Amino acid sequence: MQNINAGYGKFHVLYDINTSVEDKKITIVVGPNGSGKSTLLKSIFGLTSIYTGDIFLGEEKITNQAPHHIARKGIAYVAQVRNVFPNLSVRENLLMSGYTLKKDDLGKRIETVVGYYPILSDCYDRRASTMSGGERQMLAMAMALIRQPDIMLFDEPTANLSPKMSTQVIEEIRKLRDDLGKTVMLVEQNAIKALKCGDKALLLVSGKINFDGEASDLLGSPELGQMYLGLK
Asked: Against a cut of 0.85, is the pTM above it?
């Protein structure tokens, strides 16, 4: 991202963002509420207004492209809410996520992702609305993986989950890097858990990057941690 200024209509949120995401690594995005963390992910995925600057995927400029075009280039965005179809079953959600694929290919991919998340096989024919928050997050991850993305953007996937389930969701995201070689950007309020599994960290404050470096360095910074993340 080069010199990105972005927001929603006339509502300016991000200011002069310059950063990069490392291939097959986890980049953690943290910061106070309202600092622009979610807007950063949405800007990458074409869901905001980019006033100035450019976003690149490799050497290709993807600034202001439509989300469906960006998805086809290998980027998946898992929103904090409304990331599954609540009135559809697990099976139907997975079918919907791969509706552009050939039937045989889709069947194989569904079998593969259910293998990653065995909990889904136990509720395969249940409506998503009857699942726990953690189960729905697993379903949302599986739906994103159906499209076999290279880069996965997660917007606060542990919000409103129990501590135990939050830990499990973070562990599953770590596996995306370690087992599947995915590049991940993770916006997360639980800074300690996230930074412990991350490689790189971005600290956003009032729409600007306050820290861009190793996750372990931010975790070990008492000044930044106490001031912006509530760390002790």
From this structure: yes
